[in-house]
Amino acid sequence: MNRRKFLSFSALAGAGAVVAPQAAMAAVKSQPAEGNAKMPIATRVLGRTGMEIPILSMGVMRADNPAVVRAAYNAGITHFDTAHGYQNGKNEEMLGTFFKDKDRSTFTLATKGKADPRSANFEPEYESLLNTSLRRLQMDYVDIFYFHAADDVETLMNPRLLAMLKKFKDDGKARHIGFSTHAHKPAQIDAAIATGIFEVCLISYNFKLKILPELDAAIQRGVEAGMGFVAMKTMVGGAEDAEGSKRINGASCLRWVWQNPNITTAIPGFTSFDLLDNCLEAAHAPSLHPADAKYLAGLQNRETLYCQHCGNCVSQCVRHLPIPTMMRAYMYNFGYKHPSLSKETLMELAVTGNECAGCRACTVHCPSGFKVAEKIAAITPIVNVPSYYLT
Ligand code: SF4
Ligand code: SF4
Questions:
Q1: How far is the CA of 22 from the centre of ligand 1 (A)?
Q2: Residues 292 and 383 grouped into a single domain
Q3: How many domains, the chain?
Q4: Do residue 267 and residue 385 come from a single domain?
Q5: What digits encode the pLDDT tens for the residues 142-190?
Q6: How far is the CA of 328 from the centre of ligand 1 (A)?
Q7: In the prediction, which pLDDT does 185 show?
Q8: Which of 303, 310, 376, 379 to mutate to test the pocket of ligand 1 (most atoms within 8 A of CB)?
Q9: Residue 313 CB less than 6 A away from ligand 1
Q10: The pTM of the whole model exceeds 0.85
Q11: 221 CB-contact burial (10 Å; exposed 0-12 / middle 13-18 / buried 19+)
């Protein structure tokens, strides 16, 4: 929801005369008390977890308005995805408040957490992280606990990490164990299969992926081993152009993702009633239309905000900067219009804002056509903007 709409909605709600956007009204009308609504959305089973969930879930990451969560829940969305770090814990707190009086059997919830399994205090710190998430969520367990942003095979296979994830499951704090990754390397899926621990993989999956054949083959191997797959980054950054000025048609992107029966569900990060409506429109008619295919084909070779996370740039850069994550931060700001998330992402990298200073000519040639140095120069100064100025 943009600021103008949000303010107007809030003011009306406070006056007791809510004139909600069309999507919200539709959701409210179909609302049976506090239960799930009943506009049918196809379901699929998430690998050997046995969880049967709608093909459309909610990535709650950027949402800060519980009314949008309520509208999604009442429209038949039953799976919600958050993380320990989103909005400094406020995202989990919002979900905890929303779900505290809901029947636990009417929804499933996933959260994520990251800690370094090579650190001396890894075990107590990781357990404390999960306990904090459960306290914020006001829940005894989460349905899926993901190791967050596992972008290298060594970490994913670390025995100390695997032992802790198994403990979380044995203790009943996580019904199922998964990992998320932005780097979408087929090698990571194969490593996860080899551990025998991971039941779910949350992976970047969209029509622009250049390694789609290799990735689809790895996903197939994962499915045969009993893993379930959840798709994120389905809308390639939310904007059709590198400046972020024209919005992506999310319904077309989702229908493309659902063509793959090995993808159980997608978790688009809608933050407004309009975007929820767009996702529901797709979920209620999930087959790819010829018009979708034509639209996506037109975007296929155009530079958008989506970085493939192929990693080719890192070794080309004279300073070996963590460019893929910096490009993700750029996307969060210009595509998602979420500057605080962009800043948080860069702060985790200890970015100062002067990363390319003194570098006379950029040596990076991105196969997706990203002018990497320009994007770094545009986004890194955000780390020096006080957080209270950022939304
Ligand atoms: S910036 Fe380009 S080269 Fe670097 S990871 Fe992204 S797509 Fe690959
Ligand atoms: S300009 Fe920046 S991204 Fe390019 S090579 Fe230099 S330090 Fe690396």
A1: 39
A2: no
A3: 2
A4: no
A5: 999 999 999 789 999 999 999 999 999 999 999 999 999 988 689 999 9
A6: 10
A7: 83
A8: 310
A9: yes
A10: yes
A11: middle
